[in-house]
Amino acid sequence: MATAIQTQFKRDILDGETNEQVTSLLQQNLINLVDLALLMKQAHWNVFGPNFRSIHLQLDEIIATVRGGSDEVAERIAALGVAADGRSCTVAASSDLADYPREFVDVKQTITLVADATKTTIDSLRSAIETLGDLDPISEDMLIAIAGPMEKHLWMLQAQEA
Amino acid sequence: MATAIQTQFKRDILDGETNEQVTSLLQQNLINLVDLALLMKQAHWNVFGPNFRSIHLQLDEIIATVRGGSDEVAERIAALGVAADGRSCTVAASSDLADYPREFVDVKQTITLVADATKTTIDSLRSAIETLGDLDPISEDMLIAIAGPMEKHLWMLQAQEA
Amino acid sequence: MATAIQTQFKRDILDGETNEQVTSLLQQNLINLVDLALLMKQAHWNVFGPNFRSIHLQLDEIIATVRGGSDEVAERIAALGVAADGRSCTVAASSDLADYPREFVDVKQTITLVADATKTTIDSLRSAIETLGDLDPISEDMLIAIAGPMEKHLWMLQAQEA
Amino acid sequence: MATAIQTQFKRDILDGETNEQVTSLLQQNLINLVDLALLMKQAHWNVFGPNFRSIHLQLDEIIATVRGGSDEVAERIAALGVAADGRSCTVAASSDLADYPREFVDVKQTITLVADATKTTIDSLRSAIETLGDLDPISEDMLIAIAGPMEKHLWMLQAQEA
Amino acid sequence: MATAIQTQFKRDILDGETNEQVTSLLQQNLINLVDLALLMKQAHWNVFGPNFRSIHLQLDEIIATVRGGSDEVAERIAALGVAADGRSCTVAASSDLADYPREFVDVKQTITLVADATKTTIDSLRSAIETLGDLDPISEDMLIAIAGPMEKHLWMLQAQEA
Amino acid sequence: MATAIQTQFKRDILDGETNEQVTSLLQQNLINLVDLALLMKQAHWNVFGPNFRSIHLQLDEIIATVRGGSDEVAERIAALGVAADGRSCTVAASSDLADYPREFVDVKQTITLVADATKTTIDSLRSAIETLGDLDPISEDMLIAIAGPMEKHLWMLQAQEA
Amino acid sequence: MATAIQTQFKRDILDGETNEQVTSLLQQNLINLVDLALLMKQAHWNVFGPNFRSIHLQLDEIIATVRGGSDEVAERIAALGVAADGRSCTVAASSDLADYPREFVDVKQTITLVADATKTTIDSLRSAIETLGDLDPISEDMLIAIAGPMEKHLWMLQAQEA
Amino acid sequence: MATAIQTQFKRDILDGETNEQVTSLLQQNLINLVDLALLMKQAHWNVFGPNFRSIHLQLDEIIATVRGGSDEVAERIAALGVAADGRSCTVAASSDLADYPREFVDVKQTITLVADATKTTIDSLRSAIETLGDLDPISEDMLIAIAGPMEKHLWMLQAQEA
Amino acid sequence: MATAIQTQFKRDILDGETNEQVTSLLQQNLINLVDLALLMKQAHWNVFGPNFRSIHLQLDEIIATVRGGSDEVAERIAALGVAADGRSCTVAASSDLADYPREFVDVKQTITLVADATKTTIDSLRSAIETLGDLDPISEDMLIAIAGPMEKHLWMLQAQEA
Amino acid sequence: MATAIQTQFKRDILDGETNEQVTSLLQQNLINLVDLALLMKQAHWNVFGPNFRSIHLQLDEIIATVRGGSDEVAERIAALGVAADGRSCTVAASSDLADYPREFVDVKQTITLVADATKTTIDSLRSAIETLGDLDPISEDMLIAIAGPMEKHLWMLQAQEA
Amino acid sequence: MATAIQTQFKRDILDGETNEQVTSLLQQNLINLVDLALLMKQAHWNVFGPNFRSIHLQLDEIIATVRGGSDEVAERIAALGVAADGRSCTVAASSDLADYPREFVDVKQTITLVADATKTTIDSLRSAIETLGDLDPISEDMLIAIAGPMEKHLWMLQAQEA
Amino acid sequence: MATAIQTQFKRDILDGETNEQVTSLLQQNLINLVDLALLMKQAHWNVFGPNFRSIHLQLDEIIATVRGGSDEVAERIAALGVAADGRSCTVAASSDLADYPREFVDVKQTITLVADATKTTIDSLRSAIETLGDLDPISEDMLIAIAGPMEKHLWMLQAQEA
Question: How confident is the model at residue D161 (pLDDT cuts 50, 70, 90)?
Fold first, then answer.
């Protein structure tokens, strides 16, 4: 299996140190986004109570956004010459998201937990955006384009808590 | 958070013991299917070498099938009154699938690894189908409908190894 | 009007007695499915209260499933050489479903009544599936394919009662 | 079940007496339209003889028109504050349509029976349109919009009898 | 700028006085419809509380109907040779609708305010329909076609208040 | 051409003897389905007489079903590790279907001949379904899913003979 | 009406003072965009002269862009915890756009007036973009994405004046 | 050819004299609409000069409306039991429209001629609508629905003359 | 009206005499195609008897082909610098087609008359194709592409007469 | 079965001898095209080796072209009054194509065999085109339109052999 | 790079000399078509003056036709075994088209220049068509199919000059 | 031709010197993008060898991206008041891209050449992005949006070289 596997590719878009910083920031956000999609599917399946169906459908719309985002980020990492890592073991070990209950969760509690997880993901994106400005404007632009709709989804979740 | 969370719902479609057997079989297959989708995304992002693009596209088609299957299984579990569990920690801990490399993997090796993971998932579905025949024909029928396309995908992967 | 009307056609897919048992089981389920669609339209028009619109839309989705099911069953009866009967007088006289109120019904009460009617219809399908296994696997397969989505709809209704 | 059910809603689009006249005219037409759809499905399933397929398909096109019409009428009744009634028992008891045979019916006879039922439904619509002109132009307009396509369908049925 | 601007065009579809009456009635309804769309966008952006998302989406569906209606009316006025006026200053000065709060508004209050504004718009359409019957049946027909769906939307809003 | 051709592949989904029985049953049904599609195209091109166009179009709808079925069966055979055989020489030599005339055939005769060929194909499917139940439920399920629509098509052909 | 209305929500994405500056800049641009859409509808309805139809259609394309922009801006304001204000009274009182004639306007004059209004809106966006760079890159990015297509529309309007 | 042809069918939707008046009014409008479509195709092919393409496309949009209208009218005549007449000889002999030149016609002249022909057709529709109100509200409603879009097309033609 | 109208344009794709021959051949075929479409609409509206609906629909499919053909021919004439003539007076005076009855016509007779008219149109196209081969291959190719589908339609009409 | 079958129809588009020559040329090409589609399906199911999926998909695209071609040719034969013959026995006996292996075939060998069969089919089409030019330009044109895309498919197959 | 590049492929559809003549004619037309598309994009970007938008859009429609044509021609050359050449240096050096200005060009001048370039391209196609008739009917047919729509576009451009 | 041509338009979005810098940077990138599309079409037509079809299709996807980019850039230049230049002579003279062979090129070599040309184009975009940040954020944002997908395409090409 010697030559079949390679940790890194030689690409010269960014210089070495910058590349490491950029891909490392992207890698953590990839993990959060993959985990957020799993967490939201968990919520989608196990929510119950009045108004159940509305949140059930809304979650699938957010999941589509989140999955689109994780694909963008992973392919950006690969485009920069580094292997992306979105395996279940990595996600379980390194995600920034709080644990989600294993049980059925009612609508109100579901909204709170999902909004918190979304907020954590956005904070991580925001923090990476700040750093990336000086390192790689194309990666920065990509994260901004992911964070925008996420903040809109957050508002639409939070508006239901009020 | 007392009343907001419930481990199980009272539903009378199947009797208690049967229900436990059925949902427990479905739960393990849910884990395998969720993990298979993650593993295939990992492969999709990190494959390299001649013919790269063809396998890159083929993987996304299989992923759509696998995700459709995990949704079907999870909602069946919930329909039987038990909370489904597809969280990253559970998947990482309980999946039947072998580990996938963290690095870039070439086309040939990717096909072998992905075919193996698909075979593992099918074996688990086949074994559940045999047991479910006497317990719940609707769950059995649902797993048959998932296994059929999976075996077709397996053939299309294996045909490339020959 | 002598030759214009015929009670039965000579077809040799199944032998005579089996055919009678199969079509008689299908006929009762046809009646229940036709009545369920009418009952749900009644609910769709007359529901009121907070969250009204969500259940109003959900009911039309279930109705589409139910109507598809009754068409499948009726055409299967005809394909086996017996005339199907879905006329209003037959449905009113022989349906297994409980009566539905003539007035406006609020959201909570609507969900309970509609879930009960769905449960009655599923019980009748389940009971026919058990018998059909040995008589005609194609009719059995058709009823399983109808019962699956109906049980999922039932869960989505019941999850709102919790 | 006290507050969960209400016979009528307070709305002031039309004055009380007018409202009663309008909704009572609409209610009888609702019953006829619901029954016509059931009768045509019966015909759709049980027609036989040369040219069978053409009338089989044509009936489903007319049914789509009729179902659209009954939905419009029922929601208009509700919009005027009165509960609509399209339940199987009401339809079986109060429909203006003649009985339809329980057996298989040949193409020629099917066309005659279905055309007669359509004519009965149109007569009832026409008679309501005359009265509604002075009571509620929006309800009148809606029935005209239903009657027009019905008269065209009648022509297309009768043209086959000639 | 002398010839670039014209208050009126010579068209002979209706005689002078009739034309003035018809277009003046249409003009006031145009103002109400334009204002209603703005008011509903305001509500769409600032609604909050449980069930928020359902009303958020429902409002956009009504807005599509209302905008379609204002376009129809304005182009009818122009087709009759008179310039339509839907400018913000005219709308603010002459609309029949009550003021809407500048703040965030909860779901219940939003439904009441939006239903009231819809009712005001319908009353204005109904009153114009009565007068237009003798003046211009095509304009009358157009307003009936706008009022019908508006009354149905009103019912779907009010059903949530009950 | 030594290594370029292989009669069989090593796959371990089913044990050897079972695999041979299953694929041999599937192979005969593949031949019948391929021949049925050719026979129906022949009928589609050469039918004549009143009502010609209706049967001309109906035949193309059935052909689409039959071709879908033969593709399913052939790919199932390959998925089980055996080469499928749908070549013209094999089909001409081993088909169960009766010969079809070389001439133009009128509508009535066409319907009889096509219905007979369909019946032959269904008998072969039914007989395989019975045997496959104990050998491979996934192959059995696939043939049931093909036979169901075929029996419905048969009814729609026979209903025109009555 | 006490608790039903709230001027502001507690959100912690931006600190207080920054939030006020950002939302105040966005609010003025919201007003301009809403007014621009109304002004262009006015132009769309009342333009006349040779080539009328081409500009009539072009205006509806620009309106779609402008409405999309105002929706983006308003929902961003809400996402930042402040109520957006797009009511007719606010738009009429605070818009930066010059008055538009109440009469029919010929094609040449229409293009000039509409281009001027577009230019005013762009200047306001450009000025906000400059300030927002240091305050909130996501809001800045959103306004850049709105200004780009607006400048292209401006060119397509101006190219006709030459 | 004796029985193959029939001048009229026995139908009882309207009484005899009313039927004759209604269908005679519809017949003249049918002729005008068929001729208008031919005249506009003539214009569509032979227009020339600056701005040629815009009017060339606009004419095809109006033709689609006109053809839809003539189909509606002819099928209404048939639905009332009388044969419609849209043959070239009848159209050439009885149309109310003025002659159109045989040569190429420039844009300005084309617009004038086409607008005049549209005006003639509308006058004929308007005159029939007035009479039909008391005879058959469904035919009246149909002509109103045709005249509305025609008047809008007329405005869009005339706006280019101004 | 002096300069607004022009009999011919100077174009140099073909030399003068050739151009006259080509456009004169095309002009007669244009007349036949326009008349054929009118004749088929007449048949579409007034056909009656068993199987009515099938021929009613078939005629509209042929009409779409014929109208596409007349558009192609007329725009080819104009592209060659000569005004096309498809006005009702010209069509009525110069068409090669036999007269069609004014009354209702039964299905059998309708098929015969429509097939005859189609044959006449094809003969005229065939004759022009022979001459055009040496004059203008692009016009020849266009008529071949029109004649092919027309001959197929003729077969489908004649197959019903047999 | 006497009158139900007819070898030939009297049609007068071409004279007798020409007709025989034309339809006999078309008949051989029909056989080749039907056989080519069967051969390519065989290849589609049984190909294996690296790059398998790409050729698997490409074959289905070519099959769609080939089937479209055989339908065109068969319906042209019928349109000329002769029964087309595409039955499996005729195809097996008279096809010009070389035998295809019964086993699994690797990608390289598959491409060679499929390209050879395509070349044989093209040669037969080319040879018929040469003869048809003087006999029937419409049939010639049809075969040219089939041969063009076939030669392009051949190139795309051969380019992979290089 | 020895074997990686090849000037010609051995294919036996046409004999050697014919092949050279055919591909050489096609190559010059390829160059003209590629250059025409570039020239029209240049015009599309830099046209100005009243009516700008109409010609701006029309040019993109013609470009789509021209690009489709150049793709057809280039792939035909390759299908005949010769490498096509559409590189910028070849196009700049060998195109038959006159130079186009580097500046903004007004509408009238743009139409003249674009029509001239289209005429040059058509002349080249016409001249090749004449020669190809005896060499390769499939290539001839392809160029006719390209020239036809080009001549129609030319008419639509020239009609605006008149 | 005096006034028909203009080198520059007066527009005041950016000041003079900035405008010159911005448009000059955009102009060079326009040339590269136009040349890249031509080069890739050349590759698309003349590639050969195993795996040919996959790269053939992939190139057309990249071309769609590149053409979209060149249109964006050219219209931005025009929107800033300067004429864009994408003529074949300019592209041949000023492109930064290396020459491409005139012959057939095998898959491996094609990928290398196309990847190099893409890299050159990206370097030029990157260099312009750096300078534009301070001059015009809207132009900068547009180039970033073009460079992103280009870098992803580059990765997908390079991954095949590994």
Answer: confident
pLDDT at C2: 44
pLDDT at G18 over 50: yes
Q: Which residues pair with I5 in a beta bridge?
A: H105
Compute φ and ψ for E39, nearest 5 degrees.
-60, -40
- Coil, helix or strand at residue D70: helix
> Tell me, what's the pLDDT at K1?
40
Q: Cβ-count burial of C149 within 10 angstroms (0-12 exposed, 13-18 middle, 19+ buried)?
A: middle
Q: Are A87 and B42 in contact (CB under 8 A)?
A: yes
Q: What is the pLDDT of residue K121?
A: 97
CA pseudo-torsion sign J116, J120, J125, J131:
positive
Nearest to G42 among E86, E99, E100 (CB): E86
Q: How far is A88 from chain B (nearest CA, A)?
A: 5
Q: Which two tokens stand for residue K16?
A: 């050697």
The Cα angle at residue L27 between residues L26 and L32, in degrees rounded to 5? 95
- Considering only CA atoms, which of B110, B124, B118, B109 is closest in space to residue B150? B118
DSSP E105: E
Q: Is the pLDDT reported for residue H103 higher than 90? A: yes
Average pLDDT over all residues of chain I: 93
Strands A47-48, C5-6: pairing is unpaired
Of I59, I121, I155, F49, residue with least CA distance to J76 = I155
Chain I interface mutation, best of K142, K146, K155, highest count of I Cβ atoms under 10 Å: K155
CB < 8 Å to L162, chain B:
48-49, 52, 106
Residue G2, number of CB atoms within 10 A of its CB: 4
Domain range annotation of chain F: 16-158
Q: Would you list which residues of chain E are within 8 Å, Cβ to Cβ, of chain A? A: 47-54, 56, 104, 106
Show the DSSP H helices in chain B as ranges: 16-46, 52-79, 88-94, 107-132, 137-158
**CB-based contacts of K49, cutoff 8 Å, min separation 6:** G159, G160, G162, K106, K107, K108
Residue pLDDT, tens place only, E34-87:
999 999 999 999 999 988 899 999 999 999 999 999 999 999 999 999 999 999
Q: What end-to-end distance do the CA atoms of chain E give, in Å? A: 56
CATH architecture of D16-158: Up-down Bundle (1.20)
Distance, in Å, from the CA atom of G61 to the CA atom of G54, rounded to the nearest integer, reads: 11
* Cα–Cα–Cα angle for I78, I32, J133, rounded to 5 degrees: 80
Does an H or E element contain C6, and which?
strand C5-6
Q: CA triplet G6, G11, G12: central angle to 5 degrees?
A: 155
Nearest residue, CB atoms, G5 vs list E77, E83, E101: E101
| Sole residue written with tokens 């409306």 | H65
User: What is the ipTM score, two decimals?
Assistant: 0.94
Residues of K with a Cβ under 8 Å from any H Cβ are 51, 54, 58, 108, 156, 159-160, 162
Burial label for I22, CB within 10 Å (0-12, 13-18, 19+), is: buried
How many residues would you count in chain G? 162
How far is Cα L42 from Cα K78, in angstroms, rounded to an integer? Answer: 11
Amino acid identity, position C117: A
Beta sheet of J104-106, edge-to-edge order: F5-6, J104-106, J47-48
What does the pLDDT average to over H96-103?
A: 97
Positive or negative: CA dihedral K99, K104, K109, K112: positive
Query: Which of the 8 DSSP states describes residue L82?
Result: B
* Residue H149 token pair: 């879009």
Q: Which residues of B31-55 are buried (b: 16+ CB within 10 A; e: fewer)?
A: bbbbbbbbbbbbbbbbbbbbbbbbb
Which chain L residues are closer than 8 Å to B49 by Cβ?
A: 159-160, 162
